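Per reviewer request, we include the raw input and output of the structure prediction for the construct analysed in the revised manuscript.
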Amino acid sequence: MQPRNMSMSGVVDLAAVKAAQEAKSKAEQARAEAARQGGGGAVSPADLVIDVDEAGFERDVLQRSTEVPVVIDFWAEWCQPCKQLSPVLERLAVEYDGRFVLAKIDVDANQMLMQQFGVQGIPAVFAVVAGQALPLFQGAAPEAQIRGTLDQLVEVAEQRFGLTGLTVDPDAQPGSAEPAPQAPAGPYDHLLEAAVQALDAGDLGGAVQAYKNVLSDDPGNTEAKLGLAQAELLKRVQDADPQQVRKAAAENPRDVTAQIAAADLDLVGGHVEDAFGRLIDTVRRTAGEDRDAARLRLLELFEVVGAEDPRVTAARRALARALF
């Protein structure tokens, strides 16, 4: 994982989509557990900028990231650009009023964290959202660019991960609010973990079966439904010849099978709007069983991306217009 300038819109990473849905569910459970225990209170503005070391990283960054995006500023005392960037980030952390927390990591004192994030030059800025690391930018960027990146981060955290940030109270005592407690393990966590391990090993058939095993007992399990949709998509495209699939789709615009196959490749390649648009056009051009086939595949792809993604919302409206 190398630091780089990054836009978090327009591309769908299937592993990240799955992680987002898992994290969103776990964040909701953690918030419910915090409410049950009487926790999750307001934080002081001073708690929005924290110094983090290796010993406290899991608590202060990973655990905290289930409540709020954590922006990490890798810096060092001898680094002159760091002295330009750090005060800007600290000021913006307070200005954004709990929509993110700034964690400052001194690379000289925390070499292991620097290596784990693949930091090769400082200042380097990352974010951790629901346990997922995102490289943001490197160097002392202009404030307008930093604000744009933070705005994207906050939007993605809320829309895809369900993280709405912390409540800030100027009268709260610094350090009075602890990260929300971890949600207790669910009854199907071991089965879901087996499915993830199968995915990581490339055993798509095994992953599909593992998710179906969960759904046979718990048909409403959101994590299993998303995982099954992803695993089935990857299984459909694993032996496809992309060049032949796209050639067939271009030469036969009314061939529903060809368009469906191309839409699968579009989505796996991160071309979300193209995949949705292709199938909506196919629905518009066809009737009967062909139309139903295109519509049902489109609904399956909606499951992969996630119901709350704005691209899914827009495509649902377009589908309704195509159908009626």
